[in-house]
Write a structure and sequence with these properties.
By secondary structure, the protein is α/β, with parallel strands linked by helices. It contains 13 helices and 17 strands.
């Protein structure tokens, strides 16, 4: 008898049958070669995503939301002007006074679209006509870890696949020599830094080959790719072939689907031995590149360097590129920290969008900029001070999106006079996810995976495509 059948258990049989049916369904729903994606009956507008994640919660009232009422009612309790709703964090819910704090930074309109942008982001302001500015984002969690998890996976509890993993699973690879999903994390002295757990780019219950691959800064972007001294590439290939045969025997014996992942990862690592050094070698970049992105782009691990790497990865057709830049959690002394984060990210963020456009890549690349939530219009400490801070705020915040068929120069949605609640065209996180998937040619309700008896998806049990965001 077949050894696979001899070792078959009820659970393994269900997993095997379920996996086979899933593969059949996937094959019928999309064909990568023709660009017809999962569950769609139209050609997608985008092929890849670059997510510039600003971890900690950038303050919309100091960066994007021009609110004259903050100056008019500076120092007065915000709940004398608006009705309290939603959760406050433990930092401020016991305060007797929640004084409105006016921003210290000047705003002006930019471009033909007339977007209001703070003086702290002159480069992003200058390209406002390239941006779809969503001023009415909202989320559910009010604390960092669940909000980060929710933004990345569509659920506030750990264990779900990240967005990049869903796209790797649903759309597959466009470059066999690089991972579908690559992660870059800024290094440096980032005060107010929230921890970034690897599960934020994890595969959850999807097969392991769909997890994000983090590229490190320094001489070895991926550890353990180099062969031992004195070993040739041909010897390495013969060793991998022998390992492959052993893994195939074990797969036939046990039927464990993780062995398939192991085989694919061995092969990917072998191909990356040539693709990763070439990717990380910036010697072919002209001086004009560093003038565009800034001198920090020469230093591995900086945000500017990672933005330049994101463009190089996009050129090489990596499906999902995730950048993380921490340090936006400004509970105290916001004026000492917010300008630093803006200087680190503003020029390079705008440069990436301009660079993609001049290379003809912005048309089919979606670039997203933003954090897990926003910040309050009132003081964190309950006092009026020059060194003010702002608490977490989930009810409304701002995201920027460029390219991939999103409407350039659009200001979408509106909040009240104090950026406390959305008053028009709210965009919950699941709606943003659904809209991004739509532009990639995916019906968000059909990109599912059967796990523990239930079909899961990135948008959980809700989410709508926001047509008003699309060109």
């Amino acid at each position: 008898m077949d050894p696979l059948l001899l070792n078959m258990t009820r659970r393994r049989a269900l997993q095997t049958v379920g996996g086979g049916l899933g593969s059949m369904a996937l094959g019928s729903l999309f064909a990568e070669e023709t660009g017809v994606a999962l569950g769609a009956n139209y050609r997608p507008r985008a092929r890849r995503v670059i997510y510039l994640f600003q971890s900690g919660g950038p303050s919309q009232t100091d960066l994007f939301e021009h609110k004259p009422a903050l100056a008019k009612f500076h120092g007065q309790d915000i709940f004398s002007k608006v009705k309290q709703s939603g959760r406050l964090t433990g930092f401020t819910d016991g305060h007797k006074l929640h004084p409105i704090i006016n921003t210290r930074y000047a705003f002006k309109r930019h471009g033909e679209c007339g977007s209001w942008v703070s003086e702290l982001l002159p480069h992003l302001g200058a390209i406002s006509d390239e941006l779809c500015t969503i001023r009415s984002m909202s989320t559910k969690p009010v604390n960092h870890d669940p909000a980060l998890t929710f933004m990345q996976t569509g659920h506030n509890l750990p264990g779900r696949p990240s967005m990049g993993s869903w796209l790797s699973y649903g759309l597959g690879s466009m470059n066999r020599n690089l991972p579908d999903f690559v992660v870059l994390v800024s290094k440096g002295d980032l005060a107010n830094m929230q921890p970034l757990n690897a599960r934020l780019w994890g595969n959850g219950f999807l097969p392991g080959r769909h997890q994000g691959v983090r590229l490190r800064s320094g001489s070895e972007p991926v550890l353990y790719l180099k062969d031992p001294t004195g070993k040739s590439l041909g010897e390495r290939r013969r060793m991998l072939d022998a390992i492959h045969e052993l893994n195939q025997e074990e797969l036939a014996r046990s039927g464990n689907p993780e062995i398939t992942t192991r085989i694919s990862q061995y092969e990917m690592a072998f191909r990356m031995q040539t693709s990763i050094p070439e990717l990380a070698d910036l010697s072919d970049e002209p001086e004009s590149t560093f003038k565009l992105y800034g001198e920090d782009a020469r230093t591995p691990g900086t945000y500017a360097f990672n933005c330049l790497m994101a463009r190089r990865l996009a050129e090489r057709d990596v499906r999902f590129i995730q950048l993380y830049h921490s340090g936006w959690d400004h509970h105290f002394n916001l004026p000492a920290h917010l300008p630093k984060r803006c200087r680190e990210t503003d020029q390079a963020s705008a440069a990436l969008i301009l660079d993609l456009k001049q290379r003809g890549l912005l048309e089919d690349t979606i670039v997203v900029w933003g954090g897990e939530f926003g910040r309050t219009a009132f003081s964190q400490s309950g006092k009026v001070a020059e060194s003010y801070g702002r608490d977490h705020h989930a009810a409304c915040f701002t995201k920027l999106v460029a390219g991939g068929g999103f409407k350039a120069g659009l200001n979408y949605g509106e909040t009240d006079d104090f950026s406390y609640q959305v008053v028009r065209d709210e965009v919950p996180v699941h709606d943003l996810h659904a809209t991004v998937l739509h532009q990639l040619g995916i019906d968000h309700e059909k990109l599912t995976f059967l796990f523990q008896g239930r079909r899961y998806r990135l948008t959980d049990v809700e989410g709508h495509v926001v047509r008003g965001l699309l060109a």
